[in-house]
Amino acid sequence: MRIAMIGAGYVGLVSGACFADFGHEVTCVDKDERKIAALHRGEIPIFEPGLDALVAANVKAKRLDFTTDLSKPVAEADAVFIAVGTPSRRGDGHADLTYVYAAAREIAKSLSGFTVVVTKSTVPVGTGDEVERLIRETNPAADVVIASNPEFLREGAAIRDFKFPDRIVVGTNDERGRKMMGDIYRPLSLNQAPLLFTERRTAEMIKYAANAFLATKITFINEIADLSEKVGANVQEVARGIGLDNRIGTKFLHPGPGFGGSCFPKDTRALIKIAQDYDVSLRIVEAVLAVNENRKRAMARKVSHALGGALRGKTIAVLGLTFKPDTDDMREAPSIPLVTGLLDMGAKVRAYDPAGMEPARQELPNIDYCDDPYSCARDADALVIVTEWVQFRALDLDRLKEVMAQPVIVDLRNVYRPEEMRAAGFVYESIGRPVVQG
C-alpha cells in the first residue's frame, strides 16, 4: 500500500514509521521545512524510545520518506491519513480544527483514483462529515471515502502500542473503505489485534470517551489519596485492593500530582464543549477537569507544608519536568504550576530532567537547570520528585542527604517506600500515605 501521512508530529511520525515497518510505502508530509530537513538528516524532532532506529531502518529500506509538498504523495496514495494538531482553541476550549480543514482542502486538490482519506487526529464528533463536505466541494469528481481511525498511543510506549494495540477503531460504513483499512492493518493479524468497525461518528466519540474515562480514573484515585492521608490509610494498598477487581482493573490507579500532556487536558475540555453544543451536561467530566487543575496548583502547598509552611528564601530541587517519563513533552505538565507556585512563595528552584530540559526552558525560564540529580539537590532545603523517570527510582539516599541542606523529600509519585526513607533519616511526604519523620 502507498500511504501519505499529513503531519509529521508525534502521531504522524510514529504512525508513518510503523506503517512503513509493516512494509507499506509511506511519505510523511509537513509544512515545517526545518522539521523535514532535520528528518532527512536523520534527526528526530521528538523524544520517543526506539523511534530514531525505526525511522532510520525504514528510510534505509526506502519505505519511508519526508516532504513538504503533499501533491505527489497524495496523488499516488491508496490512503491519506490526516495527523495534524488539534490544540485547544484559545478562549473557549473547543478543539481547533484549522489544520484539519486546511489539510482536507489541500488533499482534495491532489486526489487521483480511488483513495481513502482517514482522520487520525483527535477531532470532535462530526468532523469527518465536514472533512467530506470540504473535499467534495473542492473536488466534486474525487472518488474518495472518508474514514475515522483515532490513535491510542501512549507517549513513551507509542511504538509498542501501535504494533500491539488493544484495539484498532475504524469509522466507516463504506465496504471499499473497510477493505482498504483492513489491508493496511493486515500485518497485525498474527497478533490478533481486534479491528472494530463502526460508524464514523461513533469512532470519533470512542476516542474522547476513552480519554475522559482514563482521566476520571486518575482523578478518582488522587481524591482517594487525599482522603487516605487524612484517615491514615495507604492509598497504594487501596489502589491494589480495588484494582484486583476485574471490573475496575489496576491501570491508571496511580496517585500523583495530576494528569497533563497533550491529550487528557485538551480532550476532556473538548468533550465538555461538544456536550454543551448539544445541550448535554457532562458533570463527571467537568468535575474531573476542575479537580485536576486545582490539584496541580496545590502541589506547591504540599512542598511548603513539608518545610513548616514557609518557602521564602528556601531552595527547592525539582526532579522531573515532563508530564510523564520517556518523553520530552512539557504540554500541561504538572511541573509548570508546581514550579510557578514555588516561585510565587519566594523559593529558589533548581531542576533536572533526563529529556525535557530544552522544552522546559521555554515554559520555565526563571529557574536554574542542573546536569544531574545530585547537583540539583546540592544545598536544597527540599527535593521534590515530580516525574517518575527510572533514573530517579534508585537514587543514592546517603549521598542525597550529604549534599542537601535539609533531609526533606516530597515524593509526588510514590517512588520510594516510607520505611526506606525513615531508615535513611529523611522527612518524607508522599501521596496518600502517612508522613515519615526521619
Summary, kept brief:
The chain is of the alpha/beta class and 438 residues long. 44% of the residues lie in helices and 13% in strands.
The fourth-level CATH homologous superfamily of the largest domain is NAD(P)-binding Rossmann-like Domain
Query: Given the C-alpha coordinates, what overall shape results?
Result: elongated
Query: What fold name goes in the CATH topology slot of the largest domain?
Result: Rossmann fold
Main sheet makeup? 6 strands, parallel
As laid out across the biggest beta sheet, the strand order is 3-2-1-4-5-6
Tally of DSSP helical segments? 17
CATH class of the largest domain: Alpha Beta
Please tell me the CATH architecture of the largest domain by its name.
Answer: 3-Layer(aba) Sandwich
> What's the oligomerization state?
single chain
Report, as a whole number of angstroms, the end-to-end distance.
62 Å
Beta strand %: 5-15%
Structure, explained:
It is elongated, with a radius of gyration of 24 Å. The chain has 17 helices and 14 strands. With 438 residues, it is α/β, with parallel strands linked by helices. Helix 9 crosses helix 11 and helix 11 runs antiparallel to helix 12. 44% of the residues lie in helices and 13% in strands. The mean pLDDT is 96. It folds into 2 domains: 197 residues, NAD(P)-binding Rossmann-like Domain (Rossmann fold); 133 residues, 3-Layer(aba) Sandwich (Rossmann fold). The protein starts with a strand and ends in a 9-residue tail after the last strand. Helix 1 links the parallel strand 1 and strand 2. Strands 3-2-1-4-5-6 form a 6-stranded parallel sheet, with helices on both faces. Strands 11-10-9-12-13-14 form a 6-stranded parallel sheet, with helices on both faces. Strands 7-8 form a two-stranded parallel sheet.
